[in-house]
Amino acid sequence: MDRNRALEELKLRIENKNTIKHSLAVEAIMRKLAIHFNEHENLWGITGLVHDIDYERVEGDMAKHGVMGADILEALNFDSTVVYAVRAHNPANNVMRRRKIDKALYCADPISGLIIACALILPDKKLKDVDEEFVMKKYHQKAFARGADREQIATCSELGLTLEEFIKISLEALKEISDELEL
């Protein structure tokens, strides 16, 4: 599976620059998790990259999110592992997260938003200024970055990771692509 093709297919369906950046962020976290678990880095990365391919097409109907994305990816002959993980990342779809990749995508999605929100409140708005302790502090402030579902992030435990380990891996991943994220 070709990463450039996956990015092209994403950009054909997503116009919002911030949604593209979110997809790149989740891709980076998934790649870092794949390395950590000695899994297929490209497969995991592409899964993160295309997980919201249907976001603009569902037009706010989150009950369709993930299902439509999986259908799009299936029609494009993406690997069935990617298709399943995309379908399973939205709990509204009632699709069991069976494999490590499914569980990783589920918790990688919201942690990306939490970490980026942490960077955006700092004076320079740069990821280089964010550390694990700061993210942990903000994680426990429920009013901060409300869209970053804390329960969903906490499912990193299903991967055998502590919250601290998960934040460390995710933060490292995002710092590596800070230029692409313009952070």
How would you characterize this protein structure?
- The structure is a single chain.
- With 183 residues, the protein is mainly α.
- It has a single domain, classed as Hypothetical protein af1432, CATH 1.10.3210.
- Helices cover 61% and strands 0% of the residues.
- It contains 10 helices and no strands.
- Helix 1 runs parallel beside helix 3 and helix 6 packs across helix 9.
- The chain is globular and about 45 Å long.
Keywords:
183 residues, mainly alpha, Hypothetical protein af1432, globular
Overall domain count: 1
Poorly predicted parts: none
Could you please say which CATH topology applies here? Hypothetical protein af1432
**Mean pLDDT across every amino acid position:** 97
CATH architecture: Orthogonal Bundle
What is the CATH class? Mainly Alpha
Number of separate helices: 10
Oligomeric status of the shown chains? single chain
**Which structural class matches the secondary elements?**
mainly alpha
Number of β-strand runs: 0
